[in-house]
Amino acid sequence: MKINILEEGIPFDIQKEYLDYSHSFERGELTPKEIEHVGKLLLYPDVPVEGKKKALAILAHVGTIEAFIQISNYYKNPDNEIIHWTALALQECKMFLESELTDENVGFISTGLGGTNDKMRVYYLILPLENKSFTKKQHKTIEAELEFIGKKYNCPIEGFDFQDNYVGLTVLIPFDITIATFIENGIKSCNEFEIFVLEHYYAGNLEIPNEEETVRLIKIVREG
Fold it and tell me: Do 204 and 149 fall within a single domain?
């Protein structure tokens, strides 16, 4: 089975709303003329947002080249309220289309942080040992060792956030590598000559936490 991942991050509530709605009806068939008519509804400014959401879901389920083109045209300049909904519809239509054209089951994954076609974006939070702070030298060690592990497992690191009491980083994780494989091997590598990184960590793919949420996550990681 082939799996694609939606590149842009989609808020979880919108994902749930779309999937619940999408699964509420079966895939249908429309003639090219009917597909064109539904596609035009997306371009009319007087069509309410709810109507456009329904039109997008219908086109997504048709899963033909004509339907994909209609969604793609709208995706170039969608209404602000349904940008994410449009992205999900486009990806679902693409999934059905690829399945038909290649005779292979195709699925897609959507997360809050998004990713690439074959990698999921994950945010990690690692901490110093209790009552300790990271030094600049330790920051450099973390950067070097995690970059090494990232190359070893084909997990590109997109960026670091170095702080005294934590290090945050976003990483693209391939489907054949578990989320734990990268970070646990990375922490082990950092601690090889000097144990200074806590073995427990946070990993998530819904969002990059703000300052308040980071404080909460640090407490959870330390206290369990």
Answer: yes
Residue 5: beta bridge partners? 109
Q: Which tokens belong to 181?
A: 């494989």
Residue 104 burial (CB count, 10 A) = 10
Separation CA 26–CA 21 (nearest Å): 11
Question: What range does the domain containing 62 cover?
Answer: 2-109
pLDDT at site 60: 87
Cα torsion for 185, 190, 194, 199, to the nearest 10°? -50
Tens digits of residue pLDDT in 184-207 = 999 999 999 999 999 998 887 777
Which residues of the chain, if any, have pLDDT below 50? Answer: 1-5, 105-110
pLDDT computed for residue 107 by the predictor:
42
CA distance 190 to 150: 13
Q: What is the pLDDT of residue 2?
A: 44
Biggest distance spanned by C-alpha atoms of the chain: 68
Quote the CA–CA distance of 19 and 85 in Å, as a whole number. Answer: 10
Distance separating alpha carbons of residues 172 and 115, to the nearest angstrom: 7
Determine the Cα–Cα distance for residues 36 and 69; give it in Å rounded to an integer: 10
What's the confidence (pLDDT) of residue 101? 55
Q: Are 143 and 210 within one domain?
A: yes
Residue 100 shares a structural domain with residue 127: no
Cα 79 to Cα 21, 53, 105, 189, distances in angstroms: 19, 10, 31, 47
100, 129: one domain: no
- Please name which of 121, 124, 71 lies closest in space to residue 93, comparing C-alpha atoms: 71
